[in-house]
Amino acid sequence: MITVCVDAMGGDEKPEVVLEGIAAALKRDQDLSVLVAGNEEYILSFCESHERAKALVTTQEIGMDEHPAQAVRTKKDSSIVRGCAAVKAGQADGFFSAGSTGAILSAATLGIGRIRGIKRPAIGAILPGRDGHQTVLLDMGANADIRSEMIVQFARMGAAYAHAALGVTTARIGLLSNGEEDTKGSELVLAYHAALREGFMQDDSCVFAGNCEGTDILNGTFDVIVCDGFTGNVALKSMEGTAKYLMHAIKQATKQSFLSKLGVALLIPALRGIAGSLSGDENGGAVLLGLKAPVLIGHGATSVEAVMNGTLATARCIRADVCNKIAQDVA
Fold first, then answer.
1. Can you give the pLDDT at residue 318?
2. Contact yes or no for 11/100 (Cβ under 8 A)
3. What is the rounded CA–CA span in Å between residue 264 and residue 253?
4. Average model confidence (pLDDT) across the chain
5. CB neighbour list of residue 41: distance below 8 Å, 6 or more residues apart
6. Cα 20 to the chain's mean position, in Å?
7. What percent of the chain has pLDDT over 90?
8. pLDDT of residue 273
9. Nearest residue to 314 (alpha-carbon basis) of 7, 93, 77
10. What is the pLDDT of residue 29?
11. Domains of the chain
């Protein structure tokens, strides 16, 4: 039986929402146990009433508005710091939290540690595409500035994750740029392109297919798309903003006539499904690649279903041995 440590205090919602998600995950996966990190007033009674849940009592929380690195240094008894320490100590095999992304990144890097040879961890997520084809996008915000050799590592980590999570045999990798031509991009992107071209010249498990544009992210043309964290975060937030605008525009359209309102009502289930796939909740959120154990980060505005999916996705990464596969690929 594997154990996932879940941060009960992370996210914008009340801890009760996270606990409901944990309960749903335990019900769905009978070979799963959960180490619940959080304040005793919330988690003790929950763990007593669930056979495969164990309490990790903490006394501090890290808020979304706190400076991540400083909070990790000063709040040693927070659910995020203690949760990552529990993974390192062998009390759990992976960690899931919907808390501060920066704090999770800092605590996991320090507490769990990087895979040998990995320069920096990267945040990746599975995004939807046409005809059901899914794409791993990374880095989405962990590293604003990176060197050329790091982009090659990101590509290898993304390919290993695509192999394990999506069943991709030969990953088709694209570099996010402002044009498909090899000559397009800033001086830094051109250096990334050259490094990727050389790094995957003799690799049967991955193929560097060249540059891609922002329109390719949701087209399903590539299995993995790599970029620096600054570019990836801007791209992700742009997609989220576009989705929110479209939902707002659709709601405004319902006020024009009864037929419009009826049409939108019929489309609501499909629209919710699209929103869920874009947010990453259906796949458990974003994954922090390059660490010695799986760490997944949920959306701050989390839900019962999102916590359940995040917990189950962490369990899948553990069973698929993603971290060891990344270590082998990088080696």
1. 93
2. no
3. 9
4. 88
5. none
6. 21
7. 59
8. 63
9. 93
10. 94
11. 1-118+290-322 (3.40.718.10), 120-284 (3.40.718.10)
The DSSP output letter for 31 is T
pLDDT confidence of 245, banded at 50, 70, 90?
confident
Q: Report DSSP letters for 234-277, one per residue.
A: HHHHHHHHHHHHHHHHHHHHTTT-HHHHHHHHHHHHHHHHHHHH
Q: Per DSSP, which regions of the chain are E strands?
A: 2-7, 32-38, 53-57, 94-97, 122-127, 135-138, 171-176, 206-212, 224-226, 286-289, 295-297
Q: How far is CA 4 from CA 25, 93, 176, 234, 249, in A?
A: 11, 6, 33, 31, 40
Inter-residue long-range contacts of 55-59, CB under 8 Å, 24+ positions, other chains counted: 56/5, 56/82, 56/83, 56/86, 56/91, 58/9, 58/82
Per DSSP, 76 falls in state: T
CA distances in angstroms from 242 to 139, 167, 235, 246, listed in the order given:
20, 30, 11, 6
Contact 278, 239 (CB under 8 A): yes
d(CA 82, CA 10) in angstroms, rounded, equals 13
Dig out the tokens for 62 from the structure: 């890290």
- Residue 280: left if φ>0, alpha if ψ -120 to 50, beta else—which one? left
CA distance 287 to 161: 9
Measured in whole angstroms, the distance separating CA 223 from the mean position of its chain's CA atoms is: 16
Neighbouring C-beta atoms of residue 193, cutoff 10 Å: 21
Q: What is the pLDDT of residue 299?
A: 80
Tokens encoding 121: 């961890």
Q: Which two tokens stand for residue 172?
A: 């088709």
How does strand 32-38 pair with strand 171-176? unpaired
What is the pTM assigned to this prediction?
0.87
* Nearest-angstrom CA–CA distance, 261 and 264: 5
Q: Do residues 306 and 98 touch, judged by C-beta distance below 8 A?
A: yes
Mapping DSSP to helix (H, G, I), strand (E, B) and coil, where does residue 125 land?
Answer: strand
Amino acid identity of 49? S
